[in-house]
Amino acid sequence: MRQVLRKRILWVLLGLVGLGALLHFGTVGILEGLGKPLLANPSAGSQAVFDRRGGLLRLSLAPDEKFRLWTPLSEISPDLIRGTLLYEDKSFFSHPGVDLLALVRAFVRTYVLRGNRIGGSTITMQLARLRFALTSRTPIGKLKQILRALQFEFYFSKEQILEAYLNLAPYGENIEGIGAASRIYFGKSAKNLSLQEALALAVVPQNPNRRKPTASSAHVTQARQRLVSSWAESYSSDELKRAELAYPLVASPRRELPFRAPHFVEQVLLNKAEAQIQTSLDPELQEMAERGVRSFIQNTPCSSRLRGEASLRCLAPKTVYRLLCLPSKPQAKRLTFIRTCTAPLLTEYSIPTANFSASLSLIRQR
């Protein structure tokens, strides 16, 4: 038994010597040969469409059927950033992409002592695994991960690496990145997360499906408590933040994502490529008009509607809104306004408001 242990320790030492030699003598040449990689691709993500008041109308799926909303580092809650660094990589801003001591500890625990597998990856190494779809559970895979992490550190700043990681990290099921996770679980932007929400999300990437904010198992409770304790020790002087830790955590399942004004949103997505799109749609006017249209449809006999469509035209001071509402059938569940209607009018239905003069008109279907 002792002989086997001595051999394993010898292999560890030889591996460390080889790794040290690689880092000292050959890294720069290798990294220059590899060239500058693509850190992330912000365009290959979801799109979020908002009304004029900032309310979410829809969060679309990315081409790979995942929710991934690119969010700049400046638009991410500082509490989420601090929590992630506390839980994932406390020495992120001081190491060169690889934490040798953490790697040695993980290697000895896993391959020498044959104990439970523990992680030794830095945030940069995790980004390398996510970005290049690496298998890091084997020694060869780990070496590839280390080399890619050093490549990132060679070409990009720490802030760029952290931004990319927070936009690619898994947050349960098909949710990637803090931008999509904060919208889906808490209905708000990543910048407006509370401390309790930020810490709940910070523990997710290590075990995405078991630690979702909607989970309530002993496992996820222990993970959150460890981070809360670490936070309390690191930021003990901030009384206001400590008080926030007592607030209840309320997360929403993904099925409650809004799907408002679908036809309008489709038109917007066809013409806009940005990740986050602000529109001029007024949510109060939209809701009022939809109620008016539904009431009109329900109270108008089928024989009078002539298989028509309902058109809504709203006139405001110095502004003209010409909007078409589809569909106009009694069984319609969703209504939206998408374009000007010029068909001949048959009847009208008044919707009085304080600032608008609106008329609902029934038109013949072309």
TL;DR?
The radius of gyration is 27 Å and the shape is globular. It has helices at 2-34, 78-88, 100-112, 123-132, 139-155, 158-168, 178-186, 195-202, 218-234, 239-244, 262-271, 283-299, 302-305; strands at 48-50, 56-59, 67-68, 175-176, 276-278, 309-316, 319-326, 336-337, 345-352, 357-363.
Shape descriptor reads globular
Low-confidence stretches: 315-366
What is the domain tally?
Answer: 2
Which superfamily, in CATH terms, is the homologous superfamily of the largest domain? Biosynthetic peptidoglycan transglycosylase-like
Assembly status:
single chain
Provide a count of the helices.
13
Overall CATH architecture of the largest domain: Orthogonal Bundle
User: Structural class, judged by helices and strands?
Assistant: alpha+beta
Distance between the termini: 86 Å
- Give the SSE string: HEEEHHHHHEHHHHHEHHEEEEE
Average the pLDDT over all residues and give the rounded result. 75
Give the helix proportion (percent range): 40-55%
| Biggest β-sheet description | 5 strands, antiparallel
Q: What descriptors fit this protein?
A:
three-stranded mixed beta sheet; disordered C terminus; Penicillin binding protein transpeptidase fold; 2 domains; 366 residues; 45% helix; 10 strands; alpha+beta
Structure, described:
The chain is α+β, with helices and mostly antiparallel strands. It folds into two domains: 2-48 and 56-256, Biosynthetic peptidoglycan transglycosylase-like (Penicillin binding protein transpeptidase fold, Orthogonal Bundle); 283-363, no CATH class. 45% of the residues lie in helices and 13% in strands. The protein contains 13 helices and ten strands. It has helices spanning 2-34, 78-88, 100-112, 123-132, 139-155, 158-168, 178-186, 195-202, 218-234, 239-244, 262-271, 283-299, 302-305, and strands at residues 48-50, 56-59, 67-68, 175-176, 276-278, 309-316, 319-326, 336-337, 345-352, 357-363. The protein has a five-stranded antiparallel β-sheet. The protein has a three-stranded mixed β-sheet with strand order 2-1-5, with helices on one face. It has a two-stranded parallel ribbon with strand order 3-4. β1 and β2 (56-59) form a beta hairpin. α4 (123-132) packs across α6 (158-168). The protein is globular and about 80 Å long. 33% of the residues are buried.
